[in-house]
Description:
Layout: E1 2-5, H1 7-15, H2 20-29, E2 34-37, H3 39-49, H4 52-57, H5 62-75, E3 77-78, H6 95-104, E4 108-110, H7 114-118, E5 127-129, H8 131-138
Helix pairs in contact: 1-2, 2-8
Amino acid sequence: MKIVIDTSVWISALITKDSGARELLRLVFNAKLFPQMSEPLFREYEAVMKRKKIQQLTALTLSEQNELFEAYLSTCKWNEIYYMWRPNLKDEDDNFVVELAVASGAEAIITYNIKDFKNAELIFNHKIITPENFIKEIS
């Protein structure tokens, strides 16, 4: 199943020991889910991971974070975005996540920022769902 994992979920996996985000990554690493990636999402992951506050919250060393990130990226399918669906979301910084989901044919955007994605002007054929609810649905 193709999915897009929002930055909020990736960061939660880094800083929250027992979370749906970590379980989601386990499913990815066991080749049960196929995360989609784009250049803008990659850049956002990197930028947010490097924030001082995030570094203080994670138990992983910088080297361990980089190793985990590289392993995660090796599971991702890279996608080019040829069409921008804008304006769509109130938060302009979230539009590229929707565009990735559309371009890749992902079945779900997995995020902790449900309200940011639910109020879209354009409706596409993918779910907007938290990791915990997504895991319940596929179990």
